[in-house]
Amino acid sequence: MFTKVLIANRGAIAVRIERTLRHFGVKSVAVYTEADQDSLHVDEADEAILIGSGPVKESYLNEDLILDIAKKTGAEAIHPGYGFLSENAEFARRCRAEGIVFIGPTPQQMEIFGLKHSAREIAQKADVPLLPGTPLITDVSEAVRAAEEIGYPVMLKSTAGGGGIGMRVCQDEKALQAAFDSVCHLAQTNFKNSGVFLEKYIQKARHVEVQIFGNSFGEVVALGERDCSIQRRNQKVIEESPAPNFPSYIRENMLQAATRLAKEVGYRSAGTVEFLYDAEAEKFYFLEVNTRLQVEHGVTEEVLNIDLVEWMLKEACDELVNLPSLLPVPSGHSIQARIYAEDCLNDFRPSGGQIDQAIFSKSARVETWVRDGIAVTSLYDPMLAKIIVHGKTREEALLKLSAALKETRLYGVTTNLQYLQGLLEEKACKTGDVYTQMLNSYTPSEQAIEVLDGGVQSTVQDYPGRTGHWNVGVPPCGPMDPFAFRIGNKLLGNSPDAPGIEMTLRGGSYKFRDNVSFCITGANMQATLDGAEIPMYKTIQAKPEQILSFGEATEGMRTYLLIGGGLDMPKILGSSSTFTLGSFGGHGGRALRTGDVLRVSDYAHVENELALSYQPTMSKEWTIGVIPGPHCTEEFLQPEYLQQLTDTKWEVHFNSSRTGVRLIGPAPFWTREDGGEAGLHPSNIHDNAYAIGTLDLTGDMPILLGPDGPSLGGFVCPVTTASAEFWKIGQLHPGDKISFKLIDLEQAEKLKCTQEDFLQRIGTSASLPMFTNPVAQPLKSDYPLLINETENRRFPFSVRCSGDANILVEYGEMELDLLLRFQVHALMEAIQKHKDLPVLDLTPGIRSLQIHIDATKMSILELCQHISAIDRALPPLEEMEVPSRIVKLPLSWDDPATQLAIERYQQNVRPDAPWCPSNLEFIRRVNGLDHIEDVKRVVFDANYLVMGLGDVYLGAPVATPSRPSSPFSDNEI
After folding, report:
1. Higher model confidence: residue 400 or residue 680?
2. Can you give the pTM of this predicted structure?
3. Range 324-331, long-range pairs (CB < 8 A, 24+ positions)
């Protein structure tokens, strides 16, 4: 046996070969391109070599490169798999000349069978039945004369190539004349050989092939037959063994014919003899020979319980002897389905993109190269996986395959999964009455929605979004108007977390591929179904091929398309919501675009409607209830600030998004001249975990933070939107006016309870509560400090109100103190042990800890009491042990992406920001350094102690080693 084998292929077959090599202790060398760098075949190889950016001619078909890598890595043999170089006789010769074993048949055998006309000659010599046909034909007039003798219909075929390329059925002379030049040109372009010939065409033919195997000692065996009749455009879709409804005498004669043909040329290694079978006449005819391993070899292996790759390896080493004695008795039935990245209802257009999640059945044999997060490109064959099952009977195998396909999901790209599932339910498939053209009239429905136009920015969201990851900077995302979103799901009778589509400003258009129930909520984008206006907040039944179109919202900003049953989307970190900045969640981690196909879950249609008087009202002037806190106290802002906030009519800035809504208005009344240790501007503080809906003062510009916003930062936040009012932030349109009303926790609680009660009553006979705008409340003088303890403590302890679902715990003074960070960590660990607390997120800073709870299960005031008790029970810091580690990370200096971000910020947000136009110059200036190179020295020479995590790095340099000479450096943290 070899010690090292190079696999000159990619994808599922490369993985398949690697696993067999590993079983025998043989080292594998994989080749891959940049487009394939995340493929499973790269991971599973003992050694992987990059061979180019992606195009096959420069990589997988580059003979010189493949041979050079084989020699450099010390590979003794090359396994070509199928496709690419697998039937390249010249490459096989070059391998032999370089002293490298080509694992496959001989070059001469590839050449003989590679040209169909010479293969026919060998078949005739071996007494293998042939279709009436011709030798090579040079001109169309010769073809017309021959066709008259054979009788129409005929098949015009190129002698070179395979895979269905260069084949045309001609029903009459006119069709033959029209096809001749085209087929010749196609053959020359694809195979460098324009030779063509004619064969009689059987209208209802079956494609049955025999697996053959031979060794260097002249032994040849036929390893049973496979039926590959279920084809689309001459490409196999489903293969099985043994062939169904196949007379035993035909099977015996076909196996004998294949054996005779193989012996005629002393065939070596794996190969396949393909036949056409006329079921009506019970006759079979030679078609061609594939001198390689076939994609469908797995069904033969399942029925015979053998490993054909193992046989190929042993044969190449002359270790496969006495072949007839190795032939097992066939057992049971095996079926394979090929999963392609293609859009079956759009003329099988190849589908590319990112696979968000790959889920395969554990009860089937799966051969694949894909995994979560991998990119599928148009550079290669679109086959993603092969699903192979084995049963005692064909009926059992069909049931197993159907179950395996139902369990399979490949989110993020369009596949033929539903096409295959529907196909297995077809009567012809169930009975085995299969033939090569049976799919020509097969067009199944598909439980899905096709995106014709994704609008300005449409994303998949779910409620409540992605909770529990705020501490590492992953925002909750979810609908920006959760109220409208939840109403839609409630009207449809969906699960509360059913994913839907959020559309921003302009919604685009969508085609339904099956009967689908839907509901539209939020802003009115004048939706039409096949051109007819449809109402909002009402469940509607759509039919296949109907098109739902949206215009532009003039009042409000976001519209929601909710689907009966919800969209079938993967759960990434517990949610299907799209986080576009992180490029994950939803569909492909991005906004929807033309050509996307979104699968729909099963549903039952319900008739439901929300009366106009109960529908949330869109406006150009909004009143939003906000709760003071966490930072409206006098150490940050003057007492008059809150009056200024509520007296001002704020305007929505055009540069607003899901991360936050910017507001135009007067500068705040600051108490401080600067932020002290935290920075130059009085808005700066050392650290602060942000709550969704908080008003974040970034400099003098307020921003209402959205669900995709930052988790942690260094700005003062004076008020926080009540959770029942958050939906209004999602509907703010550029140019809208906002008035803020200060409310207390008690009123916020009433608003929330009313909203929840409203949602619960939808779809029931109970009357719905009416909504009113929040009314300003007289506030306590110490608001938002819920707890403020300074006496008899090692560190001052305060709890600040941060809306009606968050509190901000702070220790000590506003300074960077490592002891405070340990105190925060101790509190966080203690809270995590209290499983009775409805905590959704714990987000630590340097001296602070934000606690986000499910406010439907506990009030903020109740939470304060629990946190105070936990704090009092904390052990002394001297008893703490905190695990730590050293991590080395690369640093980039003056990165172009940073330069671009500063440029855009200066143009679109604040042209006078002190860090514009150069952040590095700003750092130099505020630190009193002489040169920008001094900034570089400090940053690159330091080791860092990480004191807080989130989407904002908090750390401090703790050492200064020698300066690196490169602009890129690995720094320890």
Report:
1. 400
2. 0.88
3. 324/219, 324/221, 326/221, 327/221, 327/223, 328/304, 330/224, 330/241, 330/242, 330/303, 330/304, 331/303, 331/304, 331/305
